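can u do me a favor
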């Protein structure tokens, strides 16, 4: 019979697996970097690494690399892992590639162009165009001149015709292009040394990575995370994944990680960013069972960060910055002890220091 696992054990496992309970972690051992650390918003990848114990102030430019990868979002990885990462984030098959680029696949298929071939075409043109740092808009304009109509769409917001967004983003990594850190609009540049034939090892396998950091999980959870077909995820499911049940429902975890599910619940308070890996899990109903609270944490636009206490999402927070002055506002969903209030204030101080600012107040209400 599969082992029965509680919701609390799942959340505790994820906190430990993602090293949110750690105070010092070398970049080489940062587990989140194996899966990629999403860099969206001012408190993006570096804040996610900082609250996992990585000394981001000591990172050199050559230590990390930013790529458009999972779901077309910018993710930070260790530069030393590039060959393996480049292979790991590619679609598994034509059907997978079709799913990952959504509506961009329709005109290509209508024209008899395989999506994988289309991604190669886009990548080839990008390699020719981007020989030095270039702003995304400039790259898009040049690529639009070089490809045929099935690759293009009319954009109402831009009032212009240009390449579909996801083939552009997924083609960039395929082309050996990285994103310059801290640029808005994004700046693309060639990766100095790039091996497009790199093959992923177990450490960077995207399905194993989800199970290792966001497990136990179902095939659909992983497929939704990757924007891949469930059938494709099942075809590449790890042979060492073992079945467990969470509140009676079937899920899987890597066999080597199963003992960690019974470990003591971690005691830790963190202010995690809106797109932190902990919040990327596709079982939001497990993370935040209350639908009204979930709606506040994952609105359609303008996500807040989450207050994490002992594995539970205890509320939400938002930064309010004016110059060097930073206030942290938000809401807790239940009363907390004075000691936990002080821990929240300490995390707000860390955030202010991370932003090179000064904390001027913490206004997080509670019942």
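np, heres the sequence
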């Amino acid at each position: 019979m599969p082992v029965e696992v509680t919701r609390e054990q799942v959340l505790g496992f994820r906190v430990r697996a993602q090293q949110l309970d750690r105070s010092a972690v070398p970049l080489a051992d940062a587990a989140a970097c194996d899966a990629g650390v999403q860099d969206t918003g001012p408190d993006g990848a570096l804040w996610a690494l900082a609250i996992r114990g990585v000394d981001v102030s000591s990172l050199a430019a050559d230590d990390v690399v930013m790529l458009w990868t999972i779901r077309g979002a910018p993710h930070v990885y260790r530069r030393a892992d590039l060959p393996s990462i480049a292979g790991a984030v590619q679609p598994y098959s034509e059907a997978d590639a079709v799913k990952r680029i959504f509506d961009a696949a329709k005109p290509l298929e209508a024209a008899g162009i395989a999506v994988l071939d289309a991604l190669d075409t886009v990548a080839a043109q990008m390699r020719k165009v981007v020989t030095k740092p270039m702003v995304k808009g400039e790259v898009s304009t040049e690529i639009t001149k070089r490809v045929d109509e099935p690759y293009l769409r009319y954009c109402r917001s831009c009032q212009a015709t240009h390449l579909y967004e996801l083939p552009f983003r997924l083609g960039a990594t395929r082309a050996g292009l990285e994103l310059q850190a801290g640029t808005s609009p994004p700046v693309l540049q060639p990766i100095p040394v790039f091996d497009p034939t790199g093959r992923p090892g177990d450490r960077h396998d995207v399905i194993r990575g989800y199970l290792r950091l966001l497990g136990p999980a179902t095939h659909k959870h992983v497929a939704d995370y990757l924007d891949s077909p469930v059938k494709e995820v099942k075809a590449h499911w790890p042979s060492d994944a073992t079945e467990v049940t969470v509140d009676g429902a079937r899920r899987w975890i890597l066999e080597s990680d199963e003992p960690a599910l019974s470990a003591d619940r971690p005691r830790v308070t963190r202010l995690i960013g809106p797109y932190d890996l902990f919040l990327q899990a596709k079982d939001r109903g497990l993370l935040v069972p209350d639908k009204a609270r979930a709606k506040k944490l994952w609105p359609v636009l303008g996500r807040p960060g989450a207050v994490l206490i002992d594995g539970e999402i205890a509320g939400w927070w938002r930064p309010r910055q004016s110059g060097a002055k930073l206030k942290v506002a938000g809401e807790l969903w239940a009363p907390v002890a004075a000691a936990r209030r002080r821990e929240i204030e300490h995390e707000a101080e860390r955030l202010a220091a991370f932003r090179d600012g000064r904390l001027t107040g913490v206004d997080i209400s509670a019942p």
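The longest helix spans residues 338-354. hope that helps!!
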